[in-house]
Design goal:
Order of helices and strands: EHEHHEHEHEHEHEHEHEEEEEEEEHHE
Shape: elongated
CATH topology of the largest domain: TIM Barrel
CATH architecture of the largest domain: Alpha-Beta Barrel
Strand content: 15-25%
Largest sheet: 8 strands, mixed
Number of strands: 17
CATH class of the largest domain: Alpha Beta
Length: 356
Amino acid sequence: MASPLEARARALISRAALLDNLTALAGRAGVPLLLPVKADAYGHSLEIIARLAAESPQVWGHAVAVPREAQALAALNLGKPIVLLTPPTPQEVPVLADLGVRIPVATLAEAEALPAHARAHLKVDTGMNRLGARPEDAVAVGRRLAERGVLEGAYTHFATSDEPELSFAHEQFRRFQAVLAGLPPVLAHASNGGGILSLGALPGMGVARPGLASYGFAPPHLHDVLPLRPVMTLQAQVTFVHDVRAGETISYGGLYTAPRDLRVATVGLGYADGYPRNATLHAHVTVHGERRPVLGRICMDQFMVDVSGLDVEQGEWIDVWGQAGITVSEVAAWGGTIEYEVLTGLGARIDRIVVT
């Protein structure tokens, strides 16, 4: 029996948009995809996205950031390789190896400590200066992994491939190619979404790793490269409708004063759900196809919207962002942040629902 208690917000996840994006990105990269599903698939739900992506012949495997994500993904039994992108602790290595998770390695000590049945991806730091072996050290680590029979892949990460100026991205790739030249053949990967869009197919790569692009987002100067569509439409429920008189203030701090009599809807979404509080006095939502302003301070669990002149009732759903109307990019700009932070900040109180 279904529960009569429902969430006050829901994220509609478009299967068609996701699969179309993956097909387009794989086509431009010229190789299959290692799809990042870290951070709960960028807020879209790791389980939902991994299951949908497993339907695509364009997806070679899934990439995650932390061991618990790898463990959760392995439990789904989707039959796709899982690549961990950041270092596990020594205690986690045998558990991950037993699950078949591909393990990142950057030092000779890590190479020596791997179980014999592990599969490793050599992490090369070509200029991000975050993780990995420096190019001058990476070949020795990779050769030791190969000697032990555990080397499957090698990878690096572009720091500036989503910027208009690409000289450093080209230099990073040159450094990575020099490392690969000193290794036996491996499954090499370098391009993130920005790399795929800006650089296209790269020689010698076996897979590509489009993160945010898979979910429908591209840097402004790359919007026209591929017809990517946002995978998520975020909706929230009207919980109360009331009248506010001219001169009255709305929400904490009295930041907004009604210039005239208003009809106001309270909506069940707030900064505890990931809707940015810093969007206060800038945010809009879509109600009955119209852009309507969010009034006053955004609260922990709700915000208020001007619905004057519209026939809005308690219980109906309004679009916070989606494929039409308000975009995540706009919400991020209103909040002084980026799409990544808005999407990955979406909380567990929001239902994720698959739609066509």
